[in-house]
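Minutes, structural biology subgroup

Action item carried over from last meeting: produce the structure token record for Flavin reductase like domain-containing protein (Thioclava indica). EB confirmed the sequence was re-checked against the source entry. Recorded below for completeness.
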Amino acid sequence: MSESDDIEAAMTQAEALGLGHVPDPSDLRLLRKALGQFATGVTVVTACECSDEATPVGMTVNSFASVSLSPALVLWSAARSSMRHAHFTQTPAFAVHVLRDDQEALVQRFTKRGDGFDGLPYTLNAEGVPLLENMLARFECITEARHDGGDHTIIIGRVTRFSMPSKGAPLVFAKGEFGRFLSET
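Output recorded by EB:
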């Protein structure tokens, strides 16, 4: 290959990269990597199992977002592949706990193979939702709506109470890693 062919090939490749990629359902790694460029906060969403025993359940979530201030609405997305999906899509109430940068251990507790509430102190609110203490912020919600979102269910909650019980920096997730927000103050 000549030098001009090399330059032409490099320009073609650069142009193709500039146009972007089409999501490929058979290989979602590249799309996941691109989405991972966007830093998110980390939360634990809690509710009670839909049974007579009212067993507490929780899930680590980074899809939390504000929807509206008036009325006060938030949303998060539950993966359909989660063993806890049914609990969260059927519950009438839930709480979203925003984690501090020193609470990464809680992230692991509420993942697929985590310990969940085993040995973890909590209280129940008036709706029977388990509440964790010492969070950066907490939003207690009544389920307002659920929407199909592909391989997730989008859950919208009406905020009935919120609190900011502790100070600190938020736990951040980006590029497959946890970190913290750096500020000058």
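Discussion: The chain has one domain: 28-175.
Next step: EB to file the record with the rest of the batch.
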